Amino acid sequence: MGRIFSCEGITKNFDDVPVVENISLEIPEGGFISLLGPSGIGKTTLFNVLAGVEKPDAGKVFLNNEDITGISGKVSYMLQKDLLLEYRTVIDNVILPLLIRGEKKTPAREFAAGFFPMFGLAGYEKKYPNELSGGMRQRAALLRTCLTTYKENQTNPIILLDEPFSALDAITRRKMQLWYAEIAEKMTISTFFITHDVEEALALSDTIYIMNGKLGAIAPGVIAHKIDVQPPRPRDADFAVSREFVEQKRFILETIGV
Question: What does the pLDDT read at residue 69?
Answer without folding.
Answer: 95
